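dude i think i finally got it to work??
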Amino acid sequence: MFCAIEERVPRGLALLRDRVWLVDGEGVPIDPYGGQAQSYSFPIFTGIDERNSGRMRAQIRRGVALVAYLQGAYPALAKEISEVDLRREDRLDLRMNKGGATVRLDPGDFGENLDRYLTLRDYLATDFGDGAYVDLRFKDRIAFRPLVASNADKGD
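look at this
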């Protein structure tokens, strides 16, 4: 008799059942994050549908694919991301460690407009301040929505 054991390799972190878990490339939770697992550094995947295991795995696989893509093509940007919201099918929302505008990516083409945005982001922050979001999902177009001051900020 022969038995082969293949250890699951952590490819991401996901917020599941109010706790952060290491997940593999197939979208399967491996272990709670902590202890020896703290040596892994990935953005945390949020917005996961825990009621539907098939959708949950698909969402996590999409997040893992995004992180792998960014680590290969944009390693400096990958280190800046604290959270990837996977709740919507039509976009991936990136939140950065230092705050600022949420960056919306196309789930079918992660790199759409990314080069353009990275060259413009300092200009946007300097000239327009923090934004509510930057949407990169449209062909040859970047949509930037500035933060709108609340009535309390206006002195009303």
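Residues 14 and 45 are 4 Å apart (CA to CA).
im so relieved honestly
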